[in-house]
Amino acid sequence: MTYLAKPKLHHPSLPRNEAGYTRRDYEGKISTLCAGCGHDSISASIIQACWELDIQPHRVAKLSGIGCSSKTPDYFLGNSHGFNSVHGRMPSVLTGANIANRDLLYLGVSGDGDSASIGLGQFAHCIRRGVNMVYIVENNGVYGLTKGQFSATASKGSKSKRGVLNPDEAVDLVGMALLLRATFVARAFSGDKKQLVPLIKAAIQHPGPSFIDIVSPCVAFNNHEGSTKSYDYVRQHNAAVNRLDFIEGREEITADYAPGEVISIAQHDGSMLKLRKLAPDYDPTDRIKAMNYVQERAAAGEIVTGLLYLSTEAADLHQYIKTVDTPLNQLGTRELCPGSAALNKINANLR
Amino acid sequence: MKPTDIAHPDYFHKVVDCQWACPAHTPVPEYIRLIAAGRHSDAYMVNWNSNVFPGILGRTCDRPCEPACRRGRVEEGNVEIRKPVAHEHGSQPEPVAICRLKRVAADNKDDITPRLPKAPKQKNGKRIACIGGGPASLTVARDLAPLGYDITIYEADPKAGGFMRSQVPRFRLPESVIDEEVGYITGIGNIEVKTGTRIDSLKKVLAEGYDAVVVGTGAPRGRDLDVPGRKEGAKNIHVGIDWLASVSFGHIDKIGKRVIVLGGGNTAMDCCRSAKRLGGEDVKVIVRSGYDEMKASPWEKEDAIEEGIPILNYMVPKSCTIEDGKLTGMVFEKVKAIYEGEGEKRRRKLVPTGEPDEHVPCDDVLVAIGQENAFPWIERDAGIEFDKWNMPVVDKVTMQSTNPKVFFGGDSAFGPKNIIWAVAHGHEVAVSIDKMLNSEDLKDRPLPAVTVISQKMGIHEWSYDNDISAALRNKVPWQDQKLTLKNIKVEVELGFDAQTGFAEAQRCLNCDVQTVFTPRLCIECDACVDICPMDCITFTPNADESDLRRQLTAPSLHPEQDLYVSDTLRMTGRIMAKDEDVCLHCGLCAERCPTGAWDMQKYLLEMTHAGPGCRKPQRKAA
Q1: CA gap A185, A174 in Å, rounded
Q2: Closest Cα in chain B to A44
Q3: Which residue of B534, B541, B557 is in closest CB contact with A10?
Q4: What angle do CA A108, A111, A114 make, to 5 degrees?
Q5: CB of B509 within 8 A of CB of A9?
Q6: pLDDT at res. A275
Q7: I want to staple B88 with a disulfide (CB 3.0 to 4.6 A). Which of A100, B84, B305, B375 is the partner?
Q8: Which CA distances in Å does A205 have to A173, B67, B345, B572?
């Protein structure tokens, strides 16, 4: 962290997007997290993604729970709506907000404690219900705010900073998201923005429940030898299955990695995603195979990253419960109370 | 690219743009910080050691530092962040007012005389003659007298100071400031100033057995006008620099009501503003070239216009009109600029527009169309070689002529420049003389003294103020024109008061506090990339410079500004590349770095002047 606010001065050539904003306009307050925290890189990636997508800041709602990760919405999109909810309850609050106003873009920002421990049930049901949102877990495997106890996503057998081995099985949020049919599932590493930013952009554009598990090293308590969430460990064990190259209608994402076969996936709203395959046999549209693959590679000690699953037939909560197209918060008394004649008609139907 | 060699003194020196641009390499940010801290005497001494005439230069310097100042580049594209308040210039990118801050130090200092060096009682037995008492000679005297040299300065005018005294008008530079700063030098001791003594033979001086002779006689000959009517109108046509000298010494105190000043340089600006004060009511500057190509510093042109003096461009003097033996005006041909050729061969040519010539009536003409060197007093058999332009052949580094005992400095060395160049020459001449008279190789020049020290005081505390000010450049307040235009001795600029001086000092970006990167400590967490307000930092695979510049986080706008490239990083094999161009030196990269791979370190470079430091054995021992 720093005591100073980031100077308002910016690079002379800093461009504006279609919405008329510079990237700096999407920033928030100065971060109070520890210097070098992976979460700050994720905030920077969200800023970059929103700028590149020309998003109107006032059309975004940021929701979070409790924890280091859940503090971060204060550090990006300073001109967007935000709600810092109770520990582990972000998914419920987000669902409620989404029901009330389906027109906003919902960013749920959570951590491994918030989503895999106290909020595990909330996480599961929110995904299961298909709420249209981007659900980001900033996953560092450790309780940073309480000085470094193992969290529920810490790998079994990994070592704490004090040298204690973790005896418990880790909660696999990616596996759960696949199982519960999130329609967009990805895993990324905070130290690789070239991979992360396109994934956030795709998740934002994806209509339906999108989940991104972002491994984000805790520099203070989980960046040592024996940790499976340190900068070094993740770099050594990162097995990317693909790179997101291109979202239709957007500029090409320049990539500095080895070329591979490019595949196109049509999303149900007609937009196309172009993926560069890195693992030759990996098919991100096959949910069962994806689940198997991720488990297999995890057993082999690899951290599989990339766009792991994308449903071509996405749907969301509003479709399931058949709400009207107009956001509920915009309905007036006339629509909500159509009068006794309408009531009589309904009652007659039920007789 | 190869990793940057930050141990080379030039690398970080170039990052301190102002100091790199200053001919005397004054540690600018160092003295600006001292001003901000209210330590005006200390700030003055940093200047005095380096540029000898802080009070004079703080009013008159040509300011090569300011166009180089990073603040100007940094404010580019940023001025909309803030509306100017009353005492600020308009909303456009502007450098720090480095020059006028120097004056703040000079104006607010305490008595610094106890800090000045004194000549030793024991002289070293070497005698040095300085011909001409201007800034070059005075600098040589200041550097050598404290070492025990016996200095004699020959000055043709009644007082030492040279150009600073004779040609810079008093409304820009009060006499008291010249007296004070010349006095600091002559007060050292071992310096005899023979005023009113014009040297008419170099051989005679050499015959007096001096161990070295310094020529610092300036460029004393004003270029004259060669048009019909020049001779007939001679009584009312004056050569600018001679006229300014006569005004300075009180020989001239009035001029006609209508005055034409010919020329577009700083001398022309001094002439027109002086004329305005000596009775000129209708004073015009008339220039061959366009406004932008004029040689005068932009602020000097603006100051003349501010005083109600029009500048007429693209008018070439054709003839003087004379009636009854008296000058009545001048005829000008109207021209326009056309450009011929491409690239490097592109040349500007002034061609007539075909419009009828214009007659401009006037009572007096001041000719300020250039000045030249003249050495009628140097015998051609004095052992000094002259080139085809009749200029002495002088070594650009040692300032030595082909007569090993004779050195040149200031305008007399390479033609008209300015005070700060004369000072820089003076330092080099002093080093050369000191080395020569200690039987050392003159070409073996001393390295500058460089220290690089971390400024970290605590987790978020630095020994410098890293909170970047958003203020725009402050205006220097002016004395009321009702007073200044009536009396040539009333100084126009009042200088910054302490409060505005502080505000202006805070605009300095502390470019000497360097971002130093230690690659082996870096864990590539991107914290520095994310926090950098100017997007200076990039982690990327290595490549050659042109490719690397294309891969930067933000486009490289000034390829002449260096890229700071690290060694290969341990984890990913990438490198760190930092574009030095618009770095704010805010230190946020270092505050955000979890491992201390970034540190803010003050780089202080001080030129080695004459004395034991410039000589060989002592330097090794040190």
Answers
A1: 7
A2: B530
A3: B534
A4: 90
A5: no
A6: 77
A7: B84
A8: 22, 47, 55, 31
Backbone angles phi, psi at B32, to 5 degrees: -65, -40
For B116-220+373-436, CATH number?
Answer: 3.50.50.60
**Mean per-residue pLDDT over chain B, rounded:** 93
Give the per-residue pLDDT at A345. Answer: 94
pLDDT per residue as tens digits for the range B164-181: 999 999 999 999 999 999
Which residues, 6+ apart, have CB-to-CB distance to B63 below 8 Å?
Answer: B98, B99, B297
Q: Where are the domains of chain B?
A: 18-114+470-505, 116-220+373-436, 230-370
Instruction: Tell me the β-bridge partners of A273.
Output: A247, A265
Residues B297, B553: Cα–Cα separation, whole Å:
36
Strands B282-286 and B311-312: parallel
Q: How far is CA B596 from the centre of its chain?
A: 38
Instruction: Check B595 against A36: CB less than 8 A apart.
Output: yes
Per residue in A29-69, pLDDT (tens digit) is: 999 999 999 999 999 999 999 999 999 999 999 999 999 99
Q: Alpha helices, DSSP H only, in B372-448? A: 411-414, 419-436
CB contact under 8 A, A10 and B535: yes
| Alpha helices in B167-259, H assignment, sequence order | 175-186, 202-207, 240-248
pLDDT per position as a tens digit, B606-620: 999 999 999 976 545
Domain map (residue ranges) of chain A: 23-334
Residue A55 · residue A105 · CB < 8 Å: yes
Pick the CATH number of A23-334 from 3.10.20.310, 3.40.50.970, 3.10.150.10, 3.30.450.20: 3.40.50.970
**CB proximity list for B199: less than 8 A, separation 6 or greater:** B131, B154, B156, B205, B377
Whether this model's pTM surpasses 0.95: no
User: Which residue from A192, A191, A188 is spatially nearest to A173, judged by alpha carbons?
Assistant: A188
Query: pLDDT band at residue A253, thresholds of 50, 70 and 90?
Result: very low
**Mean pLDDT for the stretch of residues B387-413:** 95
Which distant-in-sequence residues (6+ apart) come within 8 Å of B139 by Cβ? B52, B409, B422, B423, B425, B426, B427, B429, B430
What span, in angstroms and rounded, lies between the C-alpha atoms of B427 and B608? 9
Rounded-to-integer distance, Cα B230 and Cα B224, Å: 9
At B504 the pLDDT is 96
Predicted pLDDT of residue A250: 44
Which string of b and e fits A270-282 if b means at least 16 CB within 10 Å?
A: ebebbbbbbbeeb
- Picking from B592, B595, B598, B599 by the largest number of A CB atoms within 10 A of its own CB, the best residue to mutate is B592
Q: What's the CATH architecture for B230-370? A: 3-Layer(bba) Sandwich (3.50)
Q: Collapse the DSSP code of B149 into the 3-class scheme (helix H, G, I; strand E, B; otherwise coil) and give the result.
A: coil
Nearest-Cα distance to chain B for A43, in Å, is 9
Tokens of B519: 């690659």
pLDDT tens across A108-156, in order?
Answer: 999 999 999 999 999 999 999 999 999 999 999 999 999 999 999 999 9
Question: Can you tell me the distance from the alpha carbon of B386 to that of B392, in angstroms, rounded to the nearest whole number?
Answer: 4
Q: What span, in angstroms and rounded, lies between the C-alpha atoms of A1 and A276?
A: 37
Query: Quick one: CA torsion of B195, B201, B203, B207, rounded to 10 degrees?
Result: -40
User: Can you give the pLDDT at residue B82?
Assistant: 61
